[in-house]
Amino acid sequence: VFIAQSRASGSHRDLEDEELTRIFVMIPKTYTEEDLREKFKMYGDIEYCSIIKNKTTGESKGLGYVRYLKPSQAAQAIEECDRSFRAILAEPKNKSSESFEHDYYSNSMRPELRGNTLPFCMQPEFCSFEKAETRIQEPVSKRLLVVSRLPLIQEQLFALFDLIPCLEYCDVQRDAHNNSGYAVIQYSTAASAIYAKYKLHGFEYPPGNRLTVVFLEDGNDSSE
């Protein structure tokens, strides 16, 4: 990616600060600023790294900023870094970090926007659940049934559930009698299936249509 600027427009440092040299990334909550720098220094000269922390507890939110000296370096980092970082250009500094974080997560779940590069917390190392939330009361499996009042589109649903790692297949069907849709989703690990159900049950897709996601018996021992 190359970014061209007119010489006639004078200094562009302020513009670069705001729009072209800072990237926003999703990181494991255990990362320090040095860890973040180490991961991204291969793409160019880093001016600073910062990690967004909870104002009350001081704990990392699993999000951070990396600012490069040149726009081309930021562009290269976005293009070449591991997909798990979900790197995007950061909003200008005059927009509050809370607002940007909200937009980041809200936009991440719109399949029509960015396909496989959608920023969404899906790696197990990026996600922490309270113990009460992980007590699964129902039999679990690696297979899920997705039910929708509206027809589902194979490619879009695949892109949505592929946000969680280890997706093996997505088979979309349509009810010929009432035009509703359903699909069978299977992951290679039960952990991925549990997380997909946790995140996507009740998710509105398309907007106004809530998906129902339940476990399907896959023939394996659910105690595993």
TL;DR?
This protein has 224 residues and is an alpha+beta fold. It has helices at 13-20, 33-40, 71-80, 97-108, 111-114, 154-161, 190-200, and strands spanning 22-26, 46-53, 60-68, 88-89, 143-148, 167-174, 181-187, 212-216.
Structure write-up:
The chain is an alpha+beta fold and 224 residues long. Among the domains are: 18-89, 2-Layer Sandwich (Alpha-Beta Plaits); 143-215, RRM (RNA recognition motif) domain (Alpha-Beta Plaits), CATH 3.30.70.330. The chain contains seven helices and eight strands. The protein has helices spanning 13-20, 33-40, 71-80, 97-108, 111-114, 154-161, 190-200, and strands spanning 22-26, 46-53, 60-68, 88-89, 143-148, 167-174, 181-187, 212-216. Strands 2-3-1-4 form a four-stranded antiparallel sheet. A four-stranded antiparallel sheet has the order 6-7-5-8, covered by helices on one side. Strand 6 and strand 7 (181-187) form a beta hairpin. The protein starts with 12 loop residues before the first helix and ends in an 8-residue tail after the last strand.
Which descriptors would you attach to this protein?
RBM45 protein; alpha+beta; single chain; 4-stranded antiparallel beta sheet; Alpha-Beta Plaits; RBD_domain_sf; RNA-binding; 224 residues; RRM_dom
